[in-house]
């Protein structure tokens, strides 16, 4: 049981490049979330999903897109990366018990 | 709108020096209050869930308590390995989106 895994762990992009972050969970959780964490800002919700095939915007969705084609996977896409998207990205999942289980994070730097 | 305020932002303790971290919250119908521990370079790790005022949970040197307006995370005789950032979050009503505080960074010196 790996819990929540994230790929990649680190990435450096140039402004304007695109990339996809992958989150996978093996706990059969319905709900999945993408957060970004910046110094002094805490965790901020980007997008979330309440089930396979559904997604919704969180607090800071601009510049990001998501997809949940399979229940166990939640993808976060950056179509045209900007330096303001330099951050640490965390994925989380939960069931109806509402405790969120977090992945190890992806550290993204946009030059 | 749910709000969570954690204090202090940073806390330095000597090994063995007990203290408390505070999480003040405003929420419309508390469904749960959560404490997480986050080590540098890692994702938050779940510690406790509290559901109603008066409830307490313990784990090793940590004890979480809850009132109608705030929660405390008491750390008894801390050790250097307790150094981490501690996050508090609340969940209200029928929502599945928790509101997180900005955390308290705890450093325990040997």
Task: Write a concise synopsis of the structure shown.
The complex is a heterodimer of chains A (111) and B (110). Chain A is an all-beta fold and 111 residues long.
Q: Any overview of this molecule?
A:
The complex is a heterodimer of chains A (111) and B (110). Chain A is mainly beta and 111 residues long. In chain A, strands 2, 4, 5, 6, 9, 10 and 11 form a 7-stranded mixed sheet that branches. In chain A, strands 1-3-8-7 form a 4-stranded antiparallel sheet, with no helix packed on it. Chain A has strands spanning 4-7, 10-13, 19-25, 31-38, 42-51, 54-57, 65-67, 73-78, 87-94, 101-102, 106-110. The model of chain A has no long low-confidence stretch (mean pLDDT 94). Chain A has no helices and 11 strands. In chain A, 0% of the residues lie in helices and 55% in strands. The relative contact order of chain A is 0.33. Chain B has 110 residues and is mostly beta strands. In chain B, strands 2, 4, 5, 9, 10 and 11 form a 6-stranded mixed sheet that branches. A 5-stranded antiparallel sheet of chain B has the order 1-3-8-7-6, with no helix packed on it. Chain B is globular, with a radius of gyration of 13 Å. The model of chain B has no long low-confidence stretch (mean pLDDT 95). Chain A binds chain B through residues 4, 31, 33, 40-43, 45, 48, 50, 58, 90, 92, 94, 98-105, and chain B through 31-32, 34, 36, 41-46, 49, 87, 89, 91, 96-98, 100-103.
Helix content of chain A: under 10%
Largest sheet of chain B: 6 strands, mixed
Spans where pLDDT lies below 50 across 5 or more residues of chain B = none
The major pleated sheet of chain A works out as: 7 strands, mixed
Order of helices and strands of chain B: EEEEEEEEEEE
Portion in beta strands of chain B: over 45%
C-alpha Rg of chain A (nearest Å): 13 Å
Shape of chain A: globular
Averaging pLDDT over every residue of chain B, what do you get? 95
Number of helices of chain A: 0
The greatest interface here is:
A-B, 22 and 21 residues
**Strands of chain B, count:** 11
Helix content of chain B: under 10%
Unreliable stretches of chain A (pLDDT < 50, length at least 5) are: none
